[in-house]
Amino acid sequence: MQKGSVIGFPVKAKVFSTNNESSSGENSRHSQGLGKSVILVIPDKDAPPKNQVRVTVGHNGEILVKTGETVQPGQAISISSNSGRSIGNPGDHTHVEFSFYAGDDPRTGKPLFEPRVPTKDDIPLLKELGLIK
Predict the structure, then answer these.
(1) Distance between CA 8 and CA 127 in Å, rounded?
(2) Per-residue pLDDT of the chain in tens (133 residues, 90 and over written 9)
(3) What are phi and psi of 130, to 5 degrees?
(4) How many Cβ atoms from other residues are within 10 Å of residue 107's Cβ?
(5) 115 prior amide bond cis, ω within 30
(6) Which of 34, 40, 33, 66 is nearest to 54 (CA)?
(7) Is 118 exposed, middle or buried (0-12, 13-18, 19+ CB in 10 A)?
């Protein structure tokens, strides 16, 4: 039986990708040490990128959703653990990372998202998406 806390998500979102490996891999989100992780797009992949936020939930023991799935408010997405590199965090925990639109890749034209700490300028978008009140 998997130990750890069930991680629910507060708003409707689309699962952009999952990484269900427990060790780092070349050229993957996992190689950054987040272990088993889920990346969610809010509101969804059809919204203009400037109106999207990507949320990464890492260090999970078990992923409960699949890429492309729509997550409903309150739905369990994972079970916390200590996968990946988590130096200084000896117990089960969850890493949540926000990524905001940072323009389009000049080579591919695909939107780029930059992980960073939200600022006061992000508050209107985070409120609109229901991530904060």
Answers:
(1) 19
(2) 456 677 778 888 888 888 876 554 433 444 468 888 899 999 866 788 888 999 999 888 889 999 999 999 989 999 888 777 766 666 777 888 899 999 999 999 998 999 989 999 999 998 988 888 8
(3) 85, 15
(4) 6
(5) no
(6) 40
(7) middle
Q: In this structure, is the dihedral angle defined by the CA atoms of residues 50, 39, 25 and 116, taken in order, positive or negative?
A: positive
Tokens 């508050």 — which residue? 123
State how far the Cα of 24 lies from the Cα of 26, in Å rounded to an integer: 7
Indicate the length of the chain as a whole number. 133
Residue 45 carries which side chain, given as an amino acid letter?
Answer: K
Identity of residue 74: G
